[in-house]
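Dear U.,

Please find below the material for section 3 of the report. The protein was modelled together with zinc ion; I have listed the sequence and SMILES used, followed by the predicted complex structure.
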Amino acid sequence: MMPSFLADFIGLVFPKVCLACEQALSRGEDHLCTTCRVQLPYTDYHLLAATDNPVARRFWGRVPVCHALSYLRFLRRGRVQHLLHQLKYKGQRDVGLVLGRWYGHDLALHNFHFDLIVPVPLHPKKLAKRGYNQSDPFAEGLAESLHIPWDANGLRRLEHTDSQTQKNRVERWQNVAEVFEVATPASIQGKHVLVVDDVLTTGATLEACAAALLAAGATEVSIATIACADR
Ligand SMILES: [Zn+2]
């Protein structure tokens, strides 16, 4: 353990900054400053009945989803956009991990149960470029707090070769719907699977993942994202 005067000295030379607002962190603060932690736009949708939950409503008539959850509201130019930018483009994997831990803790407190967490897989080309799937650390943090396993390879995104540019919206959606498959159906059969992603926009990707999981034998599927954007 480093003596605290030494930690303070190192902190003066290389101050750790809040991942949301970039202000220097005080001692005892970790990853996010207290102000940001308090002021993040939490949805609290997990406290609502499914009929009142706007994220759940987004999946009505599309695919049966047990729980539809988003931790934060995505607001342009706000803290959440900054956090997600750090996670996706600045190599700040900890953003996903920390938010996953906090959200998992909240969900555990409110008696949410799942058997397995599966992140939405990234397209292999993007994965090669970015070095990691931004949904993985969120899955990992959630799994830690919920004390359940997560499987980075539970779903596979299949490479599709035909160009999407010539297609209309419905055809494009169908194309998205075809690109996921469950890697090992035996590993998800009979389970309540929580599929996770960074941001919820149209929900098409999560819908395709949920459908693939249900088709492969999952008993129930729930979805959770770090943030949800207005459509
Ligand atoms: Zn902050």
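For the text of the report, you could mention the following: Residues 136 and 177 are 21 Å apart (CA to CA).

Regards,
Y.
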